[in-house]
Design a protein that fits this description.
The chain is an alpha+beta fold. The protein has eight helices and four strands, in the order βαααααααβαββ. The longest helix is centred in the N-terminal third of the chain and has 18 residues.
Length: 194
């Protein structure tokens, strides 16, 4: 079931950019800590937990695990216990980067070479019939998948099950908001089945 997160917007303490980033990390940490991201397989076939963090406009020089001078102890702990990207390239704008990370394909292969917020400017968006998202591969392999944060590559009004079709069992996302762009999208969408 997809729900709308409009009640959060009226909160006096709600600050969108900081909240979304902290919320995405908190959701993943909560799910990991409570075993909800573990595959439901016999103990001898348990798959490792996967926590993938993507942050827009954040350079390698912001994380001490990669040599930054200021401490980032929680991220450093995750990096020490897990797998780190050591040689990775990104695109200069968010939409092509997102599609590259979701599909493993270069932007010229997906056609997503420019910034495009589907809920604002139209189109089907990230097509689950044409492209395979890594979340679907993981879900088909026995993982329970979840996502939190910004998702501007589909419009949930005509496609409320888009994230499930991409492979995410659970989600708490927003479709983007930029002052000055009309119409802005302030809606929040989430599933909760556990």
């Amino acid at each position: 079931m997809v729900r709308n997160y409009t009640s959060l917007q009226s909160s006096a303490h709600f600050r969108l950019p900081r909240f979304i980033g902290m919320f995405a990390v908190a959701v993943v940490a909560f799910l990991s800590g409570h075993g909800l991201l573990k595959a439901q397989l016999p103990k001898q076939r348990r798959l490792p937990n996967i926590v993938f963090i993507m942050a827009d406009d954040m350079g390698i020089d912001w994380v001490s695990a990669y040599g930054a001078q200021h401490p980032t102890p929680r991220i450093d702990a995750l990096a020490k216990q897990g797998v780190r990207f050591e040689n990775v390239w990104c695109n200069p704008i968010c939409t092509p980067t997102r599609l590259t990370l979701l599909t493993g394909m270069y932007p010229f292969r997906t056609g997503w070479t420019d910034h495009h917020d589907v809920p604002r400017w139209g189109g089907k968006g990230f097509d689950w019939d044409r492209f395979t998202c890594w979340a679907r591969v993981l879900r088909d392999s026995g993982y329970i998948t979840a996502i939190g944060g910004k998702w501007q590559v589909n419009d949930f009004r005509p496609y409320p099950d888009a994230l499930y079709k991409h492979g995410f069992d659970e989600h708490c996302v927003w479709t983007g908001y930029e002052t000055g762009n009309a119409p802005p999208s302030e809606e929040r969408y989430w599933t909760l089945t556990w």
